[in-house]
Design a protein that fits this description.
Elements (H helix, E strand, L loop, with lengths): L1 H15 L6 H22 L5 E6 L6 H9 L17 E4 L12 E4 L6 E5 L8 H13 L2 E6 L7 H7 L7 E6 L9 H10 L6 E4 L2 H10 L10 H11 L2 H28 L2 H31 L2 H15 L2 H14 L1 H6 L10 H10 L13 H20 L10 H32 L2 H27 L6 H46 L6 H25 L2
Parallel strand pairs: 1-4, 1-5, 2-3, 5-6, 6-7
Antiparallel strand pairs: 2-4
Helix pairs in contact: 1-2, 2-9, 3-7, 9-19, 10-15, 10-18, 11-12, 11-14, 11-16, 11-18, 12-17, 12-18, 14-16, 16-18, 17-18
């Protein structure tokens, strides 16, 4: 159990030093740190003396009880008015004592392992007296709740003890027992209702015992349970029992600490859920807006994809028609290559950078800036909405001027990865298909066949002595040109069709990439994830405690 206690204390100590943006846990940190220190101190004092505090209202006989236990007048007594202004500490020689308040120490107790303290009256109007009682209660291990038939329900005493529920062991002592009916059943029932679990109940007549001890007489029945009380203190509260009491107190304090911490961090559970849903909604809206900007600036520009596919195809073309297609592409893209600027590029050069990503295998990770006034306005609006949700959930709202820039850069990175990755692969695959040998041969058959047939006719006529007119050659050349132009047009249409197909498929990839990733408000989302992890950790601590 000690190992588990230390493990739990280490976890609580770690939580007490939380410095994130969740204000609720930060506010609990100081209180938690104090509790951890107190628990560690209690663990260190398991083998120390057991400190017993006699607590009760004025005139109930606390001082008389102490005197009766000691067999000597250690504390002044009075039946009608308070007599104890500072605590009287009855302790064995050599006991280490430090109660953070003035005390009257009396050494020489025969109770070897016990320290018994007579505290000021709990119902006093003196503030200093009540503060003194509170300090003693903070250091004690066992509370002897002293009362008579008139003051066992004294609210002033209850108000001092309620904060210590589960943290201290309690023994009830009815100090003025007589032939009158006992209040035991009603007192114990009320204690149970208040959340206390008294371990023992003694009904004694302290004054009768004190007088008997001073006179040296033998005990009699009119002392009621006083002999049992002495046996309990002298014999039953041995070292093992003292350790059990101290450990029980520490376990109760630990359970109370974790329980109160769990209650505090779960108070914002509804607002946490609203924040989580709000982040999901904001993500979806910003993803849709970012996707619209990307489609408008890049994926709607068919010339960009035609240029990339044409350039990739011209590198791989074969045969006569392929060579002519390569020449045509060189001529068509000459202005863009000379000026390093293409007609479809935006003024910012985003089109040129996108073309580079689509056209080169070794293209660098060029930044794509998809900034727009509408997108920024939407982002700032969502940032304001998120700030309200964060404040409701107990988070510190911090203005982050880099948030929008980070979002735009992340959006550009995702688009760039699509262009450099799957979109580029599609362009290459389609270029390989267009420039494949079967298609090249198929395209070259008509012009080569026509040229061969025409050449054969010219040679045949030449050996027959017939000289062909220039019109024949002009006509044949025109037909050949028409065939080549038709095939070039067909090849260009095929390339454009495949460029369109690559563009549509890449838009699908872009939608998956943007909608599947959280790009905006990373700091805020990490803060929420961290807080949820803390809540889960506290729940786990509570479960470990239940399994003790």
């Amino acid at each position: 159990m000690t190992y588990r206690m230390n493990t739990l204390l280490d976890k609580l100590d770690e939580l007490s030093h939380y410095s994130g943006s969740w204000l609720t846990l930060r506010q609990e940190g100081k209180r938690l740190n104090h509790r951890v220190a107190e628990l560690r101190e209690r663990e260190d004092r398991l083998d120390d003396v057991l400190i017993i505090a006699l607590v009760g209202g004025s005139g109930v006989g606390k001082s008389t009880l102490l005197n009766a236990l000691a067999g000597d007048e250690l504390a002044k007594t009075s039946e009608y008015r308070p007599c104890t202004s500072i605590p009287t500490v009855y302790h064995p020689p050599g006991a280490r004592l430090d109660f953070s308040t003035d005390t009257h120490n009396v050494s020489g107790s025969a109770l070897e392992h016990l320290v018994v303290i007579d505290t000021p009256d709990s119902d006093t109007i003196e503030k200093a007296h009540r503060e003194s009682v509170s300090k003693i209660l903070q250091h004690c291990d066992l509370i002897m709740m002293c009362a008579d038939a008139e003051k066992y329900l004294d609210e002033a005493t209850w108000s001092l003890l309620r904060p210590l529920q589960q943290e201290r062991s309690i023994v009830c002592v009815e100090t003025k027992a007589s032939v009158a009916p006992t209040v035991k059943e009603h007192w114990l029932a009320r204690l149970t209702e208040e959340g206390f679990s008294p371990g023992q109940y003694f009904r004694v007549n302290s004054l009768r015992t004190f007088d008997r001890k001073l006179s040296g007489a033998q005990s009699d029945a009119e002392e009621y349970d006083f002999p049992q009380l002495e046996t309990y203190l002298q014999s039953e509260l041995d070292r093992d029992q003292i350790r059990r009491i101290k450990r029980s107190n520490a376990s109760g304090l630990l359970a109370k600490t974790i329980g109160s911490l769990q209650t505090a961090v779960n108070e914002d559970a509804v607002h946490f859920e609203q924040l989580r849903e709000g982040l999901q909604r904001i993500d979806a809206e910003l993803a849709q807006a970012g996707l619209a900007v990307a489609e408008q600036r890049l994926f709607s520009e068919s010339h960009l994809w035609n240029y990339a596919l044409g350039k990739e195809t011209s590198v791989r073309t074969k045969g006569v028609v392929g060579t002519l297609y390569k020449v045509l592409e060189v001529v068509r893209t000459l202005p863009a290559r000379m000026m390093q600027w293409s007609p479809w590029s935006m003024s910012s050069g985003i089109g040129q950078r996108a073309a580079t990503l689509l056209s080169k295998d070794d293209a660098p990770a060029t930044a794509l800036t998809l900034d727009s006034a509408e997108l920024k306005q939407l982002f700032l609006q969502k940032e304001s909405e998120l700030g309200v949700l964060l404040a409701k959930a107990g988070f510190e709202v911090q203005g982050n001027t880099q948030s929008y820039d980070s979002y735009i850069n992340t959006l550009g990175d995702y688009v760039g990865e699509i262009l450099r990755g799957s979109a580029r692969e599609r362009i290459v695959r389609r270029a390989q298909l267009i420039s494949s040998w079967p298609l090249a041969v198929l395209l070259d058959i008509p012009p080569i066949a026509f040229f061969g047939i025409t050449a054969y006719g010219v040679v045949k006529e030449y050996f027959a002595g017939v000289f062909l007119e220039w019109s024949f050659f002009i006509h044949s050349g025109s037909v050949l040109a028409i065939i080549l132009v038709a095939e070039l047009v067909l090849l260009s249409l095929l390339a454009r069709s495949m460029a369109w197909s690559a563009r549509r498929s890449s838009i699908g990839d872009l939608k998956k990439a943007i909608r599947g990733h959280r790009m905006a408000f990373v700091y805020e989302r990490n803060a929420l994830d961290e807080a949820n992890a803390v809540r889960d950790e506290i729940d786990a601590l509570q479960q470990v405690l239940k399994d003790y």
